[in-house]
Request: fold
Amino acid sequence: MTEMAAKKTQNEAMLELKKNFSECREKALNLYEGISKQGPEFSLPEPMSAVKKLSDTIKREEHTIVVMGEVSRGKSSWINGLIGKELLPTDPQTTTSQAFCIRSVDDGKEAFRVRYEDDSYKEITKDELTKYGSQLYKYEGEYEDMTAKDVIRWIEIDTPCKFIPRGLRIIDTPGLGSVYAGHSEITRRFIPHANGVVFVFKSDVTVLESEVGYIEEILSVTPNILFIQTHIDVFQNWEEVRKNNEDTLRKKFREKISMPLSIWPVSNKNMLLAGEQEGENRKICLNEAKYPGLAAALDIFFLFSSGAAQLGMLIGETEEYFLRGKGRLQERLDFARSALSDMAGAERRRKEIDDKLTQLQKNYGAGAASVQDF
Reply:
C-alpha cells in the first residue's frame, strides 16, 4: 500500500469513527432525556446531579483543551504551529503571565479580546497581545482586594487555524515552576475545566517530580492527557530522553490514562514553516516536524476530549438509572399483586363467614320456630 493510499484509508477510518461517535452521542442523549423525563411520571427520583453534568458536558458544542508544562518547554510555539503562524508571544525576554484562549474560525476574521472574570471584555489589537499577556496579578498582598472585573480570566484569540478543528478552544497557560508563584496558580485554576490536557516536555530534560505531581492532579479531573516533546530539531539525544520519559510515565500512569501512553515528538520550528508552505513543500516540513504521527494521535485525543469517554459513562449511568427504576417499579407491582391477592383472600373469607352467618340465621330461624311451636 502506498503512503497516499494508507493516509486515505486512515482518514476514511477517522471520518467513520467520528460519524459513529456522532450517531452514538445523539442516541445516548435521547435515551437519557427520555428516561429522565419519564422518571417523575412514575414517582421515581431524578438522576444524580453528576449524571446531568455528564449529559451537559456531552451536549456542549465547545470543549476545552489545556496546554500545560514547565516554563520554557515550547508550549506557545507549539500552539503557534497548530495555528499556522506566530501569534502567541514567545520572546524569551518577555514572561507570559496570563492564559490565552485560542479558537479556530472559518470566516478569516481575527479578533483579540481581554476577558475578565466577571465575563466583561475589552477589544485589543494583535500588537497588544504581549502587553496584556505579560501582566502579572498576584494572589495576595496589594491585589487581594481586586474584584472580578479587574482580574483577567484569559486573552482570547479568534483566528483561522490550519491544524485546530472547530469546536475546541485551546488554553495556553503560563509555565509551571516559574519564579512567579502566581503562574502556577493561574495554570492550575484551569485544570478543573479541562476536557483534555496536552502536557509538554522538552527534549533535554527528564521528567521532574513536580511534573509527576501535576499529572496526578490532572488525572483527578480527566484521564485525557496527550504528551508531546518539543525541540527535537535542537537536541540530538531527544530520542533517548523521550524513551526514558515514556518508561517513567508508563510505570506510574499506564492504567490511568485514556490514550495509549506515548510521548509524541514534534519540531515547532518545522510546524511553523509548514504553515507558510503549500503542496509538496508543506508535506516535507510536516514530515520534518514529525507531525503525521502526532496528527493521528491528536485526532483520537480531540475525539476523546469532545466527550467520547463521558459518553460511555453516560450510557452506563443511564442503564443503572433504568435498572434502579425498573427494580422499584417491580417492587411496587409485587406489592400491588400481594395486596390484590390479600383482598381476594379476604373476599373469600368474607363470603365463607357470610355463608356461615346465613346458615346460622336459617338454623336460628328454624330453631326459633320450633320453640314457638312448642
